[in-house]
Design brief:
With 306 residues, the chain is an alpha/beta fold. It contains 13 helices and 7 strands. The protein has 3 domains: 78 residues, Multidrug-efflux Transporter Regulator, Chain: A, Domain 2 (Orthogonal Bundle); 77 residues, Methionine synthase domain (Methyltransferase, Methionine Synthase (B12-binding Domains), Chain A, domain 1, Orthogonal Bundle); 130 residues, Cobalamin-binding domain (Rossmann fold), CATH 3.40.50. Helix 7 runs antiparallel to helix 8. It is globular and about 65 Å long.
Amino acid sequence: MYSIKQVAAMLGIQAVTLRAWENRYNAVTPERTESGYRMYTEDHVADLRWLKEQIDQHQTSISEAVRMLKEQKESRSKAEIPMPMLPPVPVAEDAYAQMTDQIYESLYHFQGERANGLIDFGFTMYGYDSMFYHVLVPILIRVGDAWEEGRATIAQEHFMTQLISQRFYQFFHLFPIYPHLPKVLALCPEGEHHQVGLLLFSLFMRKNGAEVLYLGANTPEEGLLPIIKEQKIKLVCLSITNPVFVDTCDRLIDRIRDEFPHVRFVLGGKGFERAEHARHPEWIMPTDSAEWQSWIEREYFTSTGG
């Protein structure tokens, strides 16, 4: 179930437009909570995505698109044939690869408006989870590789990374925050410029209801201790891609623990995975993101009052 804010962000449709489509055209009828808030099912989102596609791609009016949608539903009901109501969305790997290439090329040539338009279209077609994991994350990895290999300038790397990172941040506010969960501080230590894993884990924590203060890549140590104290941080997430930063993280962890013994840590990224002698292997998160949920609940949420 999705709130109206989540649906608006997923589909690129303003909340006021969603309400108008409901009230004026009976496009969809979302369920209501006891407090009266709209809640949309997967079927509602699919219908709204299809309506938007008719308007954007075929210049169909909303009233005509709603009429077509209802006719399709009625025809399917009368025929009683188990066939999909709407044309299947192309989610094959080659479709994701094509979208990735188009967005990457736009960013590479500093075409921000075109890139944002493609990303919006991707969210509409595939939903935000698929776009993040199958398109935007591969682009960030590709950008990092291109910069390291000299195929992208530092300006290109910064522009591409910043634009995609901003799209990640937009979704942070969509999920409710549960005060009983540990407050998280997420950062890469000074010198570490790659933040793909940190972004993904931070989004994962926000989806779980934890408040995340995201500091991002190349964060200097100066000022961290006051933040931990003032913001009542209970969990610090450190991410590195190069094992050379393991010692830096260990020293930072020691200083934080000396000052705040209650603070716990999550260590992620290829840098920790490749470390031969990790001092805190119990804090290194699983490589497979499919295991994150059970791991975080077992290791952190249950033991921090959650």
